[in-house]
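Why do we care about 3D structure at all? Because function follows from shape, and shape follows, mostly, from sequence. That is the central idea of this module. The next example makes it concrete: a single protein chain, its amino acid sequence, and then its structure expressed as tokens.
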Amino acid sequence: MKLEVKDLIYKHQLNNNFCLGPLSLTGEGYLRVLGANGSGKTTLLKCLAGIYRASKGTAYLAGKELDHVIWVGAEAAIYWDSLTAKEYIMLQAKLYGVAKSDAEKKLVKFKLDYLNQNIFSLSTGQKKIISIISCVISACPLVIMDEPDSNLDEANREFLYDLILQESSLRKQFFLFSSHIPSNHFSEDNTKKLNAGHLMC
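And the structure:
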């Protein structure tokens, strides 16, 4: 599954000194956006998620305009913390119209040992993993994640990176995510670096 962004521009309404773009980029399966704070990573992702309205530009996924998108913020936002992790994931799957049997089949392969624990008892990193797995099981074609690897320990970070690579290889979902953490897991072709709103060569 291929993401194509062409000539995207965003001008901040409250900060005339910052302008994102024009940016053109492509990725196959996933796209990792690197950059320091203030480089425009989150702004780019929010434009593609529809949270911000770009001033100009086009974006296509598998040749079609972006339609169904899931946004995962930098913080794990789980509001039903009285549920177990499995109950939460299954509820999210139901809300996205995924059959219970399909959701359970997908969930088994992740081999999480804390599925039956209440959300409130989980660590911040575990909550973030649960939130991201919910997005994977939703089968939404485009999953956009703002710094999903922040505040994760090494084990959870490795789990996340493997999840992105494995799921994107199935060509059913595209993963667009930002990061400031160096990693050798991802290809240079699928890694873009931003500085002051512009792509670095």
